[in-house]
Design brief:
heterodimer, A: 6-stranded parallel β-sheet, 4-stranded parallel β-sheet, 43% helix, B: 13 helices
């Protein structure tokens, strides 16, 4: 009696499990398959997914035609994320694209041979997805959504062709800012800048740190540092009083009164991820593709703030801005 | 459904079987609805991952994670027994507090242990593929836990704990210290849940502060599905039922993940999973309504 009951329940589940196997195998006619998973569905992550799909479509792999595009959401549960990772590894698609850190960790620890392109991960090294950003090796590469520091430096160079020294106010207690500082120091020479550090451990210290930069730098570049961002107005006052332009790393701060920045939106993050996926579909080895940072193309400018800080924004910059603040 | 996916479902089912066994202890044996598990699961993961990153021996880290889970259970039991806070509320308080505690322990929301040595590392050299090795390892752990737990619940102390859950007043009249057994039972239950968290982190390479969401739901579903499938008053079979229920629950999710061919979307996953589990609970009754109906009174008292 007991046995028959167990068998009955097991049979019922087995039948349900067998149904997918009986479904028509439509994967046969499609030439490539990409499996995408995100930890949860929300506007930013959905935009990444749509960006990946649209980029692949533009590069010639049409979903439902020459591309099998699978998408699974873990609905906020890392346990389910792990199970989705195993499911994808079992399906053996051409590329797996995990969106967000927990999904990426689940996929990377489950997939040994299948190419993985993670995206929307802020710190791929800290998340142990790769051991080296420039030479990831193995089967994993991807895109991080760290601040596009190089784009910021290029923008400052375009707006201020003669500037030489950049002030960098930051809180040395924030690991995120320390990472950004190292990045800025590394990239600044490529754009003809030198970096002057202005540490401030509390919001109240920010104005003093900014004053200390007056006369020593040609512009201030504020990173996405929580301490400094919360005291942005202190920087802006010093900038206006001393004709010292303040540039930022986030578009929100431009709306609060900084000169300009260029930032990405998450649809663009998806498009850039799709480009990496396309390279792998064309035969490149993921381990040979360096991990990239998302590049931003959303240009925010604030001509009024620029004028107050003693510079004029070039016509070419204002013309291509996606948002001109104050108009 | 591929073999890799099926083995993955079995592995995850086995990891969460430890949660189911913990929930069985609190919910069925002690009659204590305990939501602490939503916090003690990520607590186990957080403690194990943080200690492993700090260079501890993974077994020692896992043991410490269990001790941390036991402590969480004792906190809930104290709020309930000592301060007379309703058990449900007491466990909710511990659960929400544990979210902050877990963030403190890890220092950030997510700790990776993909490249560190774990309890599984020594076994990777045995020539088995990951997909086979991991469920096999967890199976051994679960088998040991089930055997020890069956022995414990059959001991004099364990019998007194079961009496506490069935009828506390009666148990006290027999000279049983019900408070002590609630403390012990809650500690043991949450230690098992934390062990599940520690193994989850080590088999999947990360501890995430959000990984506790819905743990109690998964544990309860496993216990109840297990009771439906393996109906027995023998304690060992009741424990085995928890394990079977947990694996069946994961297979239900696996089926739901493969359900896109009938026009379902990724966002329907939880709904499909719920329907499959409901189906698994209802089907045995539909098969023979007469017999199922006759056994109705017995189902509530299962395994006590």
């Amino acid at each position: 009696m007991k046995i028959s009951r167990i068998a009955g329940a097991a049979l019922a589940l087995a039948c349900l499990g067998a149904v997918p196997a009986l479904a028509p195998a439509q994967a046969q006619v499609q030439s490539k398959s990409v499996a995408v998973t995100a930890i949860v569905e929300h506007p930013a992550l959905d935009a990444v997914r749509d960006g990946v799909r649209d980029e692949l479509a533009e590069q010639g792999w049409k979903p439902g035609d020459t591309l099998r595009f699978d998408y699974q959401s873990a609905q906020g549960n890392p346990g389910t994320a792990v199970q989705i990772a195993r499911q994808f590894v079992g399906q053996a698609p051409d590329v797996i694209v995990p969106i967000s850190t927990p999904s990426a960790q689940a996929v990377v620890s489950a997939a040994r041979d299948i190419p993985v392109v993670f995206t929307a991960v802020t710190d791929p090294l800290g998340a142990q997805l790769v051991r080296d950003l420039s030479k990831p090796g193995r089967n994993v590469t991807g895109l991080s959504d760290l601040s596009p520091v190089a784009d910021h430096l290029a923008l400052i160079r375009e707006i201020m062709p003669d500037a030489k020294r950049l002030g960098f106010p930051y809180n040395p207690g924030e690991p995120n800012s320390v990472t950004l500082l190292e990045l800025v120091k590394k990239l600044a020479p490529d754009h003809g800048f030198s970096v002057v550090e202005a540490p401030a451990t509390r919001s109240a210290d920010v104005q003093g740190a900014a004053r200390g930069l007056v006369g020593r730098v040609d512009a201030i570049y504020m990173p996405t540092d929580n301490t400094v961002v919360s005291a942005l107005e202190a920087l802006l006052i010093v900038g206006a009083q001393n004709k010292l332009p303040v540039f930022t790393a986030d578009t929100d701060s431009v709306q609060r009164g900084a000169v300009a920045t260029v930032g990405f939106n998450y649809y663009q993050v998806g498009r850039q991820t799709g480009q990496i996926v396309a390279r792998i579909l064309k035969g490149e080895n993921p381990g040979d593709i360096p991990v990239k940072s998302a590049e931003g193309t959303d240009l925010y400018v604030n001509p009024k703030a620029a004028a107050a800080m003693g510079i004029a924004l070039p016509e070419s910059v204002v013309a291509r801005a996606s948002k001109v603040v104050g108009q | 459904m591929s073999t890799v996916a099926l083995l993955g479902a079995a592995e995850l089912g086995l990891v969460f079987a430890l949660v189911a066994l913990g929930v069985f202890l609190s919910f069925r044996v002690l009659d204590f609805p305990d939501l602490t598990v939503d916090g003690s699961f990520p607590l186990g993961a957080a403690v194990a991952a943080t200690l492993i990153v700090a260079g501890w021996n993974p077994w020692l880290a896992t043991g410490t994670a269990m001790a941390a889970g036991a402590l969480a259970g004792i906190v809930t039991a104290t709020l309930n027994v000592r301060f007379r806070i309703l058990h449900l509320l007491a466990s909710i308080l511990t659960m929400i507090a544990l979210f902050s505690v877990n963030l403190r322990i890890m220092g950030r929301p997510n700790v990776a242990i993909i490249i560190q040595d774990t309890v599984l590392t020594p076994f990777y050299g045995l020539g088995l593929s990951d997909a086979v090795l991991r469920p096999l390892f967890v199976l051994v752990v679960v088998a040991v836990v089930v055997a020890l737990l069956a022995r414990f619940l059959g001991s004099e102390f364990g019998l007194a704990m079961r009496a506490t859950g069935v009828n506390a007043r009666m148990a006290r009249a027999q000279g049983v210290s019900t408070d002590l057994h609630i403390y012990a039972g809650m500690a043991l239950s949450n230690a098992l849940v934390a062990l599940a968290g520690a193994l989850f982190a080590q088999t999947n390479g990360f501890a995430d502060v959000t990984s506790g969401i819905g743990t109690i739901v998964i544990g309860l579903a496993a216990v109840i599905v297990g009771e439906t499938v393996v109906r027995s008053r023998v304690i060992l079979w009741a424990l085995v039922g928890c394990v079977v229920g947990s694996i069946l629950y994961r297979i239900a999710i696996q089926v739901a993940l493969n359900a896109d061919f009938i026009g379902l979307q990724a966002s329907d996953l939880n709904l499909v999973t719920a329907l499959l589990v409901a189906g698994a609970l209802i089907l045995p009754r539909l098969r023979n309504p007469l017999r199922a109906g006759r056994q109705e009174p017995g189902t509530q008292g299962t395994a006590r």
